[in-house]
Amino acid sequence: MLLAVVNANLCFCIIDVGAYGRGSDGGTLRESAFGHAIQEGTLGVPPHAIIPGAEDLRPLPHTFVGDEAFPLRRHLMCPYPGRNLCRRRRMFNYRMSQARMVVEQAFGVLAARFRIY
């Protein structure tokens, strides 16, 4: 199993390889060096910052985006579970899926370039 952090420019910033495929995504994250660093606060996540173009908002935290298989953590955002969600939660989940598409695109580029994965 492969865990990866990809930035908005489709660059792999962090990868963690080595877990067996039959484990859960949440369990794999918990046991990985990346997961330990998130839990212990040693990963070096930047401090809260103002988002350009949204200066009227308070500083917002840097977060990682995961799918529904990952647990909700301080620096890990996940979609709302379930099917019968209110409009606001459905919209949030849609926007989360758009953010996760960056990771899918990065793996697509990787697979096309090296013909692996």
TrEMBL record:
Return the protein name. DDE Tnp4 domain-containing protein
* ATP-binding recorded as keyword: no
Record-annotated DDE Tnp4 domain positions: 2-116
Q: What lineage is this protein's organism placed in?
A: Eukaryota, Metazoa, Chordata, Craniata, Vertebrata
Superkingdom in the source lineage? Eukaryota
Q: Which UniProt keywords apply?
A: Metal-binding, Signal
Signal peptide stretch: 1-19
Question: Could you give a GO molecular-function term held by this entry?
Answer: metal ion binding
Note whether DNA repair occurs among the keywords.
no
Cofactor(s) the protein requires to work: a divalent metal cation
